[in-house]
Amino acid sequence: MAPLRRSSTLRLTGLLCLLFLVFFSRGFASHDVVSEKSSGTIQEDSHSQANSTAHEKTFPVLSFNYEHVRTPFEISLWILLALFMKLGFHIIPTVSHIVPESCLLIFVGLLVGGIIKATGEQPPVLDSSLFFLYLLPPIILDAGYFLPMRSFTENIGTILMFAVVGTLWNVFFIGGMMYAVCQIDAAELAHVDLLSCLLFGSIISAVDPVSVLAVFEEIHINELLHILVFGESLLNDAVTVVLYHLFKEFAHEQTITVTGAILGVISFFVVSLGGVMVGVIYGIVGAFTSRFTSYSRVIEPLFVFLYSYMAYLSAEIFHLSGIMSLIACGVIMRPYVEANISHKSYTTVKYFLKMWSSVSDTLIFIFLGVSTVAGPHTWNWTFVIFTVIFCLVSRVLGVIGLTAFINKFRIVKLTKKDQFIIAYGGLRGAIAFSLGFLLDNGEIKNLFLTAIITVIFFTVFVQGMTIRPLVELLAVKKKKESKESINEEIHTQFLDHLLTGIEDICGHYGHHHWKDKLNRFNKTYVKRWLIAGERSTEPQLISFYNKMELKQAMMMVESGSAAKLPTIVSTVSIRNVQTKGAPKPSRAISKSREEEIRRLLRANLQKTRQRLRSYSRYELLNDALEDNISEARFRKQREMERRMSHYLTVPANRQETPPVRKVFFQPEHKVYTYDDSESPRGWASPSCADDVSELKETPEKPDQSSTPRANRDAELKPKEQDDQGDQLKVSRCLSDPGPNPEDDEDSTFLP
Amino acid sequence: MGALQSLPGRPEYSDLAEKTGFSFEQIGVLHKRFKQLSHNEETLRRDHFNEIHDLAFNPIRAQIIEAFFDRRNFHQDGEGKVQEIGFEEFVVVMSHFRPPSDHMTEEQREKTRREKLRFLFNMHDTDNDGTITLEEYRHVVEELLSRSGTLEKETAKCIADAAMLEVASISVGHMEPDEFYEGITFEHFLKLLDGFEIESRMTIRFLNMDTTTLCK
């Protein structure tokens, strides 16, 4: 009962805030007239009575000047509104299960628009330049930066087919059919000529990435379908841009010439390839810049954002495809930038992108709703109904036809179910609306806008709402839980090499051969230039491995209690794997070996890519002491993790193997007096007894002793000890003389 | 097309085609390649493989070549290695990489999966004892990393250890501290790469056309 009441009060509060916001802004609108007049009079007075004192004019202790801050104030209000709505929908779970978020947001937009109109004001319309310059880029950059490259490149042929041929088919089919409809006398649409219809077709055919993202994200469909529909929505931008400009030109001239058509085809290639090239150039420059940003880590994320935004704007200058430029920039930049920038910057980039795209997305849908209420509408039943029907029909026909063709070339064929989802997922959205808005004013424009809005509403509401139950009904494969498995990664790499080898033996240069060549080229030349330092030679398997291990560590640290265990619980430990025939640990290790190991570890260790509440120690070593206190805190957390790892029967592999982690654990063990009573390690292994005794046994170095799990990983132990000592010394040098053991123990001990 | 007619031993092809599932054209192309590699001799030896220029950059080259000479991959229930192989064995090994045909029953798909995973397993299990031991797995990872520069042995070891533990956790789940995990058996291997979709990933496109003359 209580949560319900709370949520309804929240809703009420939200609604009140909403009304307040609206009235507030309206009130200000009328206020500024008054304030202007008053300030005018005050000035006059002061002029005419230059030298006199103490007239009726008093010094304004509190004045009111809204005009000054009007624009940023209102923008902030709108964004706040958007955020409140987003928050509200997630607090009330019941509604958001049935209705996708985009629908709710449009609905809110309608409401707000209605309220504003009711108060007599003119509601703001989604201005095209606002949309294209400010609202769209963050969403596209977010999508492009985190595009799953492997599945994208594997399916690039299919995606391009759908994007280019599919969109072309849609344009001409819809344009043609609508022209046929306009010929019907009963519809009173005779004034709409063929070119206008084709123009309309080009606006309405493109699948919209914003809507696709918004809806598909919630249904967690399998990766193949997701990348097909989403990739298509991104790449069809080039086609849309070209056709739109082409038909607009033609509509102006009122003629179609053959040269015009040929130029159109050429222009398509120029627009798409040019856009990609612009993106690649900016991407490479950005990657190169990131090589030097170690001197000022704080501004690193800005480089990523600015280079990408500039790529978009530069492409827009020349009427090239801005979306493709943005995607290309993000894709090219990412591997090199990620290798260069610090962990914190990476997190910043990731979260800023997510944040901006989320806000943009929300604002777009709300504005769509508001614009619907605002704009002048010309409702023509025939036109609108037929538009909707033809959009659906052409999409279905297009998908079926193309799939029949594409399946001849695919290894993994697209089934009927897949085709249905692809067809059903062709959602239209705000891009279509904005493009329509850019048309010259006139009756036709209003007619088109109305139809566009209806189609958008139809796709978002009807298709968006029903796609989830349909996915369940058809039992479409869902996104499988990505359990990052080191074995899968090993075998992925192994397979890559194996297949390349087999292709070479077979003697035909296939897909794997070229991919391998590209990788080799990348490794030998490009990485040297674009990645700073030793990271440039780090093989992918090692990066993956380090990434995974650290992720596990952080997961454990953050979960913070036994309640949130990782799913696989097993008591298998490294001893089980290695006992047989493992040589007795030899304590003596050469200095050079130790050097090697240390260098190797430092060079290979990848900065953690996951959420890291504290600061990475490696970060500190490399980044010159950003925060000494956090280093101590980090050590505490490592200790916590270490304790938990004994207390809980989590998969031992996550803790045992990497010497990296061991290195930083062992010191803590000695810093904090360790006795059996503290951590119930009895579960973990009977070797505890041995460990403790060994603890007392061999004080090799003043601060160290043999590691508790000496038998487990024989060879690595001895090296670690020396390593630990040095690492500890280094860290001690760099920081305050370390935390007080007693204090730490008290504050970090887990309840 | 004319070149195909001149290829000898057409009836032989139908046997092979039936056994391996390749089409006549594909077998013809492979035969040409075989002749090219073996310099028109009847059998291929290891040094013939070593001559292939492109393979030089491949980190797991040795294992790939060994796989061709491994009796276990000939589908004849043999064991051990041979020194030279004929065309039939060549095609049989190649058939492991055929894409799954369109109309396959679930059973056939499962069979293909097992076959391909068996091939991979054989590549890892060099001493042919039916399990991939820790040493063998370490060797695999080392080879994978062998091309990428300096001392990677330690990290390779850690990776292999971690991977082994993962297999153990997945397959066995609960082990007493003094129990010993022998190695990855074929069943464990199957379980491990369950979600890997190997039947579509471990494939290359076999062309019906002869492109060997276009490339070295």
Automatic annotation (TrEMBL), chain A:
Compartments where located: Basolateral cell membrane
Regions crossing the membrane: 99-116, 128-147, 159-181, 193-215, 227-247, 259-285, 317-337, 358-375, 381-407, 419-439, 451-471
Keywords per UniProt: Antiport, Cell membrane, Glycoprotein, Ion transport, Membrane, Phosphoprotein, Signal, Sodium, Sodium transport, Transmembrane, Transmembrane helix, Transport
GO annotations of cellular component type: basolateral plasma membrane
Superkingdom per UniProt: Eukaryota
Positions with biased composition (Basic and acidic residues): 693-703, 710-722
Signal peptide (from-to): 1-29
Ranges where the Sodium/hydrogen exchanger regulatory region domain occurs: 569-665
GO terms for MF: potassium:proton antiporter activity; sodium:proton antiporter activity
Membrane topology label: Multi-pass membrane protein
PANTHER family to which the protein is assigned, alphabetical: SODIUM/HYDROGEN EXCHANGER (PTHR10110), SODIUM_HYDROGEN EXCHANGER (PTHR10110:SF192)
NCBIfam families linked to this entry: b_cpa1
Name of the protein in question: Sodium/hydrogen exchanger
Organism: Oreochromis aureus (Israeli tilapia)
UniProt lineage: Eukaryota, Metazoa, Chordata, Craniata, Vertebrata
Gene that specifies this protein: LOC116315166
From TrEMBL, chain B:
Gene Ontology BP, a term: cell differentiation
Annotated keywords: Calcium, Cell membrane, Cell projection, Cytoplasm, Differentiation, Lipoprotein, Membrane, Metal-binding, Myristate, Nucleus, Protein kinase inhibitor
Domain of life where this protein originates: Eukaryota
InterPro entries noted in UniProt: CHP3, EF-hand-dom_pair, EF_Hand_1_Ca_BS, EF_hand_dom
GO cellular component, one term: lamellipodium
Presence of the UniProt keyword Lipid metabolism in the record: no
EF-hand domain sequence ranges: 112-147
Pfam families with a match to the protein in the record: EF-hand_1 (PF00036)
Location(s) in or outside the cell: Cell projection, Lamellipodium; Cell projection, Ruffle membrane; Cytoplasm; Membrane
Keyword Cytoplasm annotated: yes
GO MF annotations, alphabetized: calcium ion binding; protein kinase inhibitor activity
Membrane association type: Lipid-anchor
Similarity comment: Belongs to the calcineurin regulatory subunit family. CHP subfamily.
Protein name: Calcineurin B homologous protein 3
Organism (species): Oreochromis aureus (Israeli tilapia)
Organism lineage string: Eukaryota, Metazoa, Chordata, Craniata, Vertebrata
